[in-house]
């Protein structure tokens, strides 16, 4: 079992080259997302994570919105051309997972347990990171490639409007995924002896 887990951990990479070809059914994707949301831990079991899964045209719409938003910000045409190319890359994928945290849950905890007031927003983001990782790794185990993106807060208002997202949900990250069309490059690793210390 631990071998399987670490195979998945070692196999997960950032894939920018992705296509719209289906790798597994939409139901299976939904199952991965739901299992991850249900079983990823959160501080005080607060379960503040919220997820929106965009498939098909809805996925395309997200990357059209992101491109248009960035067009309004990046004035230089040449610089925008490379941004537009990047957006087209994400749009050419199969779907996107949007990660949110429900700040009303975080605020509720802050009121209930003032001793940990400053920690709850940090723990909320840590728990979201765990969830992002579980879904990223879970989708790649199925044969998808994915990357983690952060166009929040630039796209927050448009996303909330388009998908009727409650005001208290804060967008944290976007995970576009699809069938890999290109393998990630070599990855450099820093020496572990500088990063891990063991005392016994
Ligand atoms: C918290 C976090 C934020 C990241 N943000 C971005 C991002 O905004 N855009 C992006 O292309 N990659 C992003 N990445 C991906 C990293 O650049 C990537 O994971 C790292 O270079 C290691 O490569 P690998 O994912 O192939 O192992 C992020 C990764 C993490 C863990």
Helical content band: 40-55%
Q: From N to C, what is the helix and strand string?
A: HEHEHHEHHEHE
Low-pLDDT segments? none
CATH architecture tag = 3-Layer(aba) Sandwich
Q: According to CATH, what is the class?
A: Alpha Beta
CATH fold-level label: NADH Oxidase
Small molecules in complex: flavin mononucleotide
Class of secondary structure makeup: alpha+beta
Q: How can the largest sheet be summarized?
A: 5 strands, antiparallel
Output the CATH homologous superfamily. NADH Oxidase
Averaged pLDDT, please?
Answer: 97
Count up the domains: 1
β-strand amount: 15-25%
Instruction: Specify the overall morphology.
Output: globular
Number of helices: 7
Task: Give a written overview of the molecule.
The protein is of the alpha+beta class. The protein has one domain: NADH Oxidase (3-Layer(aba) Sandwich), CATH 3.40.109. 47% of the residues lie in helices and 16% in strands. The chain has 7 helices and 5 strands. Helix 2 runs antiparallel to helix 6 (119-141) and helix 3 packs antiparallel against helix 4 (77-91). The longest helix is centred in the middle third of the chain and has 23 residues, at 119-141. It is globular and about 50 Å long. The mean pLDDT is 97. Bound molecules: flavin mononucleotide. Residues 13-14, 147-150, 184, 187 line the site of flavin mononucleotide (FMN).
